[in-house]
Amino acid sequence: MYNTTNCSTNTGNTGAQNYCGPTGIDRVLVLVPKGTEIATETLAVTLDTWQDNINEAKANRWFPLIPIWEMEPEQADATTRESSLGYEEYVRDGKLKVKYTLEEMSPYNKTQLAKLNNNDYDLFVVTDKEYIKGRSVDGTKFLPYQLDYFRVLPETPNTGGEN
What we know:
Elements: E1 26-33, H1 41-44, H2 47-54, E2 63-64, E3 68-75, E4 79-82, E5 88-92, E6 96-102, H3 107-114, E7 121-127, E8 132-133, E9 145-146
Antiparallel strand pairs: 1-2, 1-7, 3-6, 4-5, 7-8, 7-9
């Protein structure tokens, strides 16, 4: 998050950490092409950076999506393996899978959104408190969250109570 003061360090939780408070609830997803990076904190919080990339040619364009209505995260269990002698060994953390339901939109928007299916994207998240969430491995470059897979599911039918 580059629109706030630095809230932690890259060295892990080795003592008292700075904490800037809750960042808010995910509100808008911004899909960006794989390999996207913002070079500095100043560029990350500059409106022109976002406007220029949203208006870029389609191959390099950033796609802010319709606001989020609902979020359903699901954390998979960690993977372990067991030896024939009964020992258990940690292999890797379980992956986080998130299903976002977006606000209602026009049929045209739904068609256009479906065209983004199966492309290689990463993700910045904008919260209801106007924070931009991403990550940094070197404390300078601002990177999106890496996605393994992006897919738009079909619209759920309107039952009169829920969409």
